């Protein structure tokens, strides 16, 4: 394991950058399958499907779908030179996670910083004796915290392969040296599925939109940061390293983005729902040398931009069209495998969002796995599921530095360095 950093920008113009060490988890085939389900809040997302018909979205906000380009240094906090505290060797990552502390004195936890969900939860010291994920993790003990207060609401969150169940409490949450007072969070007492077994993190810190409804009955962490003046704008940015040779560290910054982590300017797309970081993918295109290309126009496919999901998840019909075209080019097998030596010589797949095309090269969307014998296997970082919208996870976000702009209800992308 190696260390990353999460930076918090507490202000718009002359903010001090605070760093929290993050860590990464090595990839294998079993983990890759499981992690695509880790942070999908199934109940909340199924409710979004009510706005769909035959795969087309119903736009919920009165915002122009046209892309907008801005110079983020003119509107958001930025800093040209940031110390790279720890070098990241980021090949074969499955998920990114980092520390927070809860209570007084602080109790330390590792959590996934997750744009695909809303709530903060960690295992409770009151979890059952047969709750294996709990006993593999750090556990919150309310009795030893002088700032603990009881909230008492029962909550549960359903994920793709299971759920977590518990009750709510309030305490001081510390990220770096920034503290959020009286923050509501979940103490999980039951994790009956295998989703969280043998993971390197304890819980999840949801970073949903400022209008995301907390299941826990209070303000989310992001909402509380603004309400308590910890940050001056409802903006956070996510940068994920691509590989072990990268000179910069993965970072989450609150209050603005960092100029040295992207090339060019950001292009923006409006959210299609106020309570999810979802945008419309209007088309997908593919090109490969002089062979016939792929064209999927007029998709109007909703996509959740999710830092807590490893892969790109697509509706099955869309995935089938892409992989059938790639198979015809002769670069992948029917199982979606490729020769690891050819990752730089694969088709380009481009997603159009907000009028702007975002191409992915083979080196972006191919992931390297270890099979049961320890041999290296290269496979598509795309998969499918049975729902008519997509998730653009870490495979996409490693290529594009992402700004989650809750002030203007939009998401911006810029080419990551």
UniProtKB/TrEMBL annotation:
Residue stretches making up the Peptidase A1 domain: 96-414
GO biological process: proteolysis
Pfam families for the chain: Asp
UniProt GO molecular function: aspartic-type endopeptidase activity
Location of the active site: 114, 306
GO cellular component, one term: lysosome
Residues annotated as signal peptide: 1-15
Gene3D superfamilies associated with the record: Acid Proteases
Xref: PROSITE patterns: ASP_PROTEASE (PS00141), PEPTIDASE_A1 (PS51767)
InterPro entries reported in the protein's UniProt record: Aspartic_peptidase_A1, Aspartic_peptidase_AS, PEPTIDASE_A1, Peptidase_aspartic_dom_sf
PANTHER family: BETA-SITE APP-CLEAVING ENZYME, ISOFORM A-RELATED
Record protein name field: Peptidase A1 domain-containing protein
Organism name: Cuerna arida
């Amino acid at each position: 394991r190696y260390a990353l950093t999460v930076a918090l920008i507490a202000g718009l113009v002359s903010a001090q950058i605070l760093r929290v060490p993050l860590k990464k988890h090595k990839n294998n085939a079993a983990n890759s399958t499981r992690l695509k389900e880790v942070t999908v809040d199934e109940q909340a997302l199924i409710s979004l499907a009510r706005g769909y018909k035959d795969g087309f979205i119903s736009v919920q906000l009165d915002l122009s779908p046209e892309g907008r380009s801005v110079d983020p240094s003119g509107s958001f906090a930025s800093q040209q030179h940031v110390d790279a505290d720890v070098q990241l060797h980021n090949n074969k990552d499955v998920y990114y996670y980092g520390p927070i502390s809860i209570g007084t004195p602080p109790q330390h936890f590792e959590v996934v910083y997750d744009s695909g969900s809303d709530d903060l939860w960690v295992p409770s010291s009151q979890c059952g004796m047969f709750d294996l994920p709990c006993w593999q993790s750090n556990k919150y003990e309310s009795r030893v915290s002088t700032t603990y207060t009881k909230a008492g609401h029962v909550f549960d969150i359903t994920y793709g392969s299971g759920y977590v169940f518990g009750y709510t409490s309030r305490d001081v949450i510390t990220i770096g040296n920034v503290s959020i007072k009286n923050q509501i969070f979940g103490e999980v007492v039951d994790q009956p599925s295998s989703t969280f077994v043998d993971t390197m993190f304890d819980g999840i810190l949801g970073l949903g939109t400022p209008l995301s409804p907390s299941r826990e009955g209070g303000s989310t962490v992001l909402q509380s940061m603004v309400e308590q003046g910890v940050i001056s704008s409802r903006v956070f940015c996510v940068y994920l390293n691509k590989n072990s040779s990268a000179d910069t560290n993965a970072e989450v910054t609150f209050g603005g983005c960092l100029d040295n982590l992207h090339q060019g300017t950001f292009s923006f797309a409006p959210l299609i729902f106020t309570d999810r970081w979802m945008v419309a993918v209007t088309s997908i295109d593919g090109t490969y040398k002089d062979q016939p290309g792929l064209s999927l126009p007029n998709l109007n496919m909703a996509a959740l931009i999710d830092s807590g999901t490893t892969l790109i998840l697509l509706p099955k019909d869309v995935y089938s069209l892409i992989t059938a075209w790639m198979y015809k080019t002769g670069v992948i097998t029917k199982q979606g495998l490729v020769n690891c030596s050819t990752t730089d010589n694969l088709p380009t797949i481009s997603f159009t969002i907000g009028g702007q095309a975002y191409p992915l090269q083979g080196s972006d969307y191919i992931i390297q796995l270890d099979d049961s014998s320890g041999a290296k296997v290269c496979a598509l970082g795309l998969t499918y599921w049975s729902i008519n919208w997509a998730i653009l996870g870490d495979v996409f976000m490693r290529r594009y530095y992402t700004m989650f702009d809750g002030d203007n209800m939009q998401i911006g992308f810029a080419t990551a360095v």
